[in-house]
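Notes continue from the previous slide.

Worked example: a multi-chain complex. Inputs as given:
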Amino acid sequence: MSLLEELNGKAQALGVPFNAHFDVTYRCNERCEHCYLDHDDHGELTLLEIKGVLEQLAEAGVFFLTLSGGEVLMRMDFFDILRHARELGFHVKVKTNGVMIREKEADLIRDFGVHAVQISIYSHRAEVHDAITKLPGSLRRSVAAIRLLKSRGVQVTIANVLMQQNLHDYPGVKVLARELGVEVTTDPTITPKMDGDRSILGFGLESAQLNQVFRDSELVGNIDEFCAPPVSADESALDSTACSAGHTYCYISPYGDVYPCVQFPLPCGNVRTEKFLDIWRHSKQMNEVRSIRARDLPTCSTCAHVGGCTRCPGLAYMEGSMRGPSSLDCEKSFARTGIPSANMIARRSSHSGDQTGAALVPHVLASPSLVQISAART
Amino acid sequence: MKSCYIARSPMAAARELGGEIVIMSAVNSSLFTLNDVASLIWKAADGTTSLQEIVEHKVCAEFDVDPAIALSDAQHLVDELAGHGILLVKDQPIEKSLASAGSKP
């Protein structure tokens, strides 16, 4: 067990939110086709309010803080937020598209001791990247930002979301990352919009494409291991929790709403009206999320994949029930192993005429969730 | 003996978790946890109190330890943490600030 895993285990045992993701705005200068956010400002927290929230997070024990959006630099006061966060001792990761980072912003990011910056690059080709972001010149500006940050010694990672529009470009992005001297993470996750609209899932990879991606050793490493059939779950697997959401991790929106995760739109309270720690410790919703164990899941507890599934309770919640299956994860498990999930088999039995699990795999929505499939070291 | 002043680096991230100090270096992303004695030294590293004073007034007051050995051990710890950019070490009091250039762009 690594020191980090050990510390997360300790935090969970102590009930400490060791990790927090704070979106300081949903406004953005890009309009990415697959984005799950509404970019209007419906009443963002003020700088004073954000400083107060950060102080509460520090007091609660948050160590790893991700500042994201929207585009964080759409806030004129972002560097005041950043300074306050660093003065409070957080390990800060900033997610940005980098378009607004020039010399001065890069200097400040270095000077404030930001530990990591993540910049999304969809393709090494401007015509593909800019078509996704709908901002002409965005690839050139994002790459320029990476160079500026790297030249100042800031740790930068490229996030490469795979979808229909850029499926064939990830090798090119890896070459670009190598040239820039940064790591790249590739992820075929497209999630529904926060209001539940699932139309953007159509940008996700088809099952055959996903199958192909999962069998690229450049992305997944050892294919035999990655695509191995599921092993039967032991008692500890059945007693396990799904992920860190609500256990050591939480999400705060630009409006002060607290959720178990950025991908789990279950409102648990609002820091404008309640103390963060009261929400974290006493919210009925947060405690319900914490109570879920694999053995309690009506369908998934009987599934062959239950011991190794990446079932996302947030996606399951968006699908209907936080204790239900997450079909996107079922499809991922099936694409990896060729073995249908209990959810897929149940759906088969409710459809007359379908005799194989394969026939049940949707050809549009097949996209794994929440799990990056590679972190190529340069 | 030459004076030694230590200050927590503003570039490091730190948090107390269950009585243990967790620190990550911004220089090389190394993650550390500090034991009781090291935590005491970390908390006392204000840049204006010398290491000798910290050992005498904090460490030796809290733990039953020989002052000379404690100072030697503390010096080793300080050297290691300084090597990871977590502590600043100087032979005179340290004035530290987070990004003095950090006004609005």
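Summary box: Chain B touches chain A at residues 10-18, 20, 22, 24, 26, 29, 31, 33, 98-102, 104-105 (CB under 8 Å). The two ends of chain B are 45 Å apart (CA to CA).
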